[in-house]
Amino acid sequence: MSEPQRFMHRLALALGLTLSAVEALPAAEVAAWRQFDACGGLPDIGAQWQRAAALVAATGSKKPLEDFMPVLAWSKPRGPDALLAKLKAGQI
Q: What is residue 91's DSSP assignment?
């Protein structure tokens, strides 16, 4: 896989989009993301997973990985409906 292809895949992961959706972005936006990435901007999802797993293992924690890796929580429901669901479940 070429570097441009790897970048597009990493961008899709970082934005929570499909590869097709990222490929449909305007060229100027992709170029801006490339510049951002060159400054160390895009997260390394694999490294985040490894750090989170190491933290969980080191602490013997029973907490979910979301507590150590907020990126996992991005895809979860948010807003009033999510808050209401947590209240009903006794999580708050």
A: -
Question: Does residue 78 share a domain with residue 50?
Answer: yes
51 and 68 inside one domain: yes
Q: Give me the residue label for tokens 């429901």.
A: 77
pTM: 0.53
**Interhelix angle 3-15/27-38, nearest 10 degrees:** 90
> Tens of pLDDT along the chain (92 residues)?
898 898 999 888 888 889 999 999 999 999 999 998 888 778 777 777 777 777 777 777 777 766 666 555 555 655 666 777 777 787 76
- For the chain, the domain total comes to 2
Domain that holds residue 81: 45-88
What are the helix and strand counts (H, E) for the chain? Answer: 5, 0
